[in-house]
Amino acid sequence: MEERRELFGGLLRGARERVGLTQEVLAERSGLSARAIGNLERGRAKPRADSLRRIVQALGGAQRDGAALVAAAGLPVPAAVAEIQQVEPVEEPAGPRRLNDTEALVLFELLGGVDTESWDPDVRATLLRACSGSPAAVRLAGVVLATVPELPLEDLARRLDGLQPA
User: Fold this and answer.
1) The pTM is what?
2) What residues contact residue 154 under an 8 Å CB cut-off, 6+ apart?
C-alpha cells in the first residue's frame, strides 16, 4: 500500500513540475491545502476520488497524467474513471505522446501486476525497445502480462519486438 502511495506521489510531483506549478499554486487551483498536496507527493496520504479529480483538473486535465494518476491511486476503476471523465480535456501536443522508460515500467507494473525490477535487464530493455514508448503497446503488453502470467517474458519481448507499427 505504501509503495502505491509513493508511486502516486512521484507521478503527481512529476505532473505538477511538467506544467510548472508549485505545490501552493496546485493547492489553490484544486481547492486542497498545500499541506495535503505535500503529503500526497511524499506518499503520506492516499487521495480520495474527488480530490484526485480536482488535482487532475487543476493540472490542466491532461489525459496522460490523469490516467497515470488514477492507476497509481489504486481507486476502484469505475469510480475513478467516472471522476476523471468529468474533467475537461485540454489539447495535447500534435502527434502521439511517447512514454519514457520509467513511465512504461510503471504501466507494466500497474496493468500487469508484476515487479519489473525482478526482470532480467536484457528482457526489460527488449520490452522497452519493442514498445518504443507507445502507450498502446505498453498497455497491450501489460494486459498480456496480467492475463497470461505464465507466458515467459522472453517470448513476450520477442513477439512485441517483431511487430511493425500500423
Assistant:
1) 0.50
2) 120, 123, 126
